[in-house]
Every structure is written in structure tokens, then in C-alpha cells.
Design brief:
By secondary structure, the chain is α+β, with helices and mostly antiparallel strands. It has a six-stranded antiparallel β-sheet. Helix 1 runs parallel beside helix 7 and helix 4 packs antiparallel against helix 7.
């Protein structure tokens, strides 16, 4: 497998058996849930919950199913240097999985049927709690360094400069603006009088991300037919918009501090967006174990 991998290639991982990756796969309607950056034919750099790390590609021979590279051949050292710098600086990854899922629920255009609305509120509630704690941490630390983009390789290509930026077309987040299914963020832009939900008071030990991910997976898997929007004062949906507004407000406050110059939805770009909706990347299948 490794003999065909070149420095700068993006490596795509197949959805695994854990609940979070399965939920992300179901949410993005794809078979990929994670990506990493090849820095040689044998090594990759990736972002996991414990930070940026370098690993042997052979350790993932049964998980990596695609590789992607720029259509126009370029010197990939700017991309690799960006990744190496994040690793050398020990930049923390402060974008928990439920924050990423919360962003997908807020910005993606699949809310019209709202089959999964019963689980949206607890996920957004926990995501807002996580963002609030992150904002406090950033303000108290006096540092504005953190990895915020949900996809590490997307950020590295962005940092590499002009000509490297991954161009997403009609992906889950960067959907066609003519789409007739508005996102929660679209609905919020038309409602100025929505109050933000209060931040939850949560004991960290009580948060079961895996259980919330499983409930979301089950909800997305449950076909109920067309369901119209509830009236804005109709309870569940009003609370959903309230939580979504707080989520977006917290994201904005954090970015005002750390200031990455990217579109807000780009914070939640998905592996599926990169793998299947990149106009300037070529995708190649990697056979298992080869």
C-alpha cells in the first residue's frame, strides 16, 4: 500500500465500529470518517483527541481506503511544513467530536424533515457547554493558539497558501445555496428575536458522547416520512433554534479571539466533503492491506 503514497497525500479512513465514527458516517452519508496527511511513503501525521501525532501508515493498512492529491502537481513541502509545525508546537485540538457534530447539525441542509430532532437539543446543549469551557480556557491562558478546524489536513492545506486551498463544491457544509432545504443557521438569519438557551451546568463525568452518538445514529436511521417544521413557539423546535443560536454565538466569540481567516462553516468541513466534493483533488482507491 505504502509504495503508491507520496508526501502531501491525504489519506481517508473508513468508518469503524465505534459509535462516534458511525454517527459521522451516517450524518455525512459516506463511508469515511477521518483523514490524515502523509509526510512520507511510510508515515502520516494526524489529529486525534490527544493532539497532533505521527504514526506509521502500515498501522492503518486495513482502515485507509482512499488517497487524494492535488490535480495540479505542486511542491507539497508547504503543506507538510504546516503539519510538522502544529506537531512541534504541541497545538492542542480543542474541537470535541460533539462540537463537530453540533456544527453539522447547525450548518448542514438536512433539517427540513428533522427526523433526528429529539436528539439535536442534548447534542447542541453539550456542544455549547464544551465551547463555553473552551472560551474560558482561551481567555484565561492568554494564548490564541488552538486547532479549531474539524479536519487537520484541510487546515494544513489552507496554511500552505495560495494554490493549495481545498475547494469544496456542494458538500455537506458548502451546499448549493439554491437548495430548498434550509439549515438551522439559515433559519436563524431570518429570526432576530430568538433568545439564546442558557449554558448547561454539566458534570464532565456525566457526558456520554458515545451514547449521544448512538442515539443520533439510531434517529437518523429511523424513517418517519415527511415531518413539517414545528411552529417556532411550538416547544422542541423553538428550543432547537435557541440552542443553535447560542452555538453560533460561542463559535463567533472564540474565533474573534483566535482569528483563523476561514469561513465559519469551514470549521466543520467533513472527511466526506474532502473526499467526495473537492474540485481540485483527485481520489484514488487504496486496496485493503496492499
Amino acid at each position: 500500500m505504502t509504495e503508491n503514497i507520496k508526501p502531501g497525500d491525504i489519506l481517508m479512513f473508513e468508518v469503524g465500529d465505534d459509535r462516534l465514527s458511525k454517527a459521522i458516517g451516517k450524518l455525512t452519508k459516506s463511508n469515511v470518517c477521518h483523514c490524515a496527511l502523509a509526510v512520507s511513503s511510510n508515515e502520516l501525521i494526524e489529529m486525534r483527541g490527544n493532539g497532533v501525532q505521527k504514526k506509521n501508515i502500515s498501522d492503518y493498512k486495513d482502515e485507509i481506503i482512499f488517497k487524494l492529491n492535488l490535480r495540479d502537481e505542486k511542491d507539497m513541502m508547504p503543506v507538510i511544513n504546516a503539519a510538522e509545525k502544529y506537531m512541534a508546537d504541541g497545538i492542542p485540538y480543542d474541537w470535541p467530536s460533539l462540537v463537530m457534530i453540533g456544527g453539522l447539525l447547525v450548518y448542514s441542509r438536512f433539517n427540513k424533515k428533522l427526523k433526528h430532532k429529539r436528539i439535536v437539543n442534548p447534542i447542541l446543549g453539550v456542544a455549547c457547554w464544551s465551547l463555553d469551557k473552551l472560551l474560558i480556557k482561551i481567555n484565561n491562558s492568554g494564548s490564541n493558539e488552538a486547532m479549531m478546524c474539524s479536519q487537520f489536513v484541510y487546515q494544513c492545506y489552507l496554511d500552505a497558501g495560495e494554490g493549495y486551498y481545498i475547494e469544496i463544491e456542494n458538500g455537506l457544509i458548502f451546499a448549493d445555496k439554491e437548495c430548498d432545504e434550509p439549515s438551522l443557521s439559515d433559519l436563524l438569519s431570518n429570526e432576530d428575536d430568538i433568545e439564546m438557551a442558557p449554558i448547561l451546568t454539566i458534570d464532565p463525568s456525566e457526558i456520554d458522547e458515545e451514547q449521544l452518538a448512538q442515539e443520533l445514529f439510531d434517529a437518523l436511521d429511523y424513517e418517519t416520512g415527511d415531518v413539517e417544521y414545528e411552529h417556532l413557539d411550538g416547544g422542541v423546535f423553538a428550543k432547537t433554534l435557541s440552542n443553535a443560536k447560542r452555538f453560533m454565538d460561542l463559535v463567533e466569540k472564540i474565533l474573534d479571539v483566535i482569528g483563523p481567516d476561514i469561513p465559519r462553516p469551514a470549521l466543520f468541513v467533513t472527511p466526506a466533503d474532502i473526499c467526495f466534493h473537492s474540485a481540485n483533488l483527485e481520489r484514488h482507491v487504496i486496496p485493503y492491506g496492499k
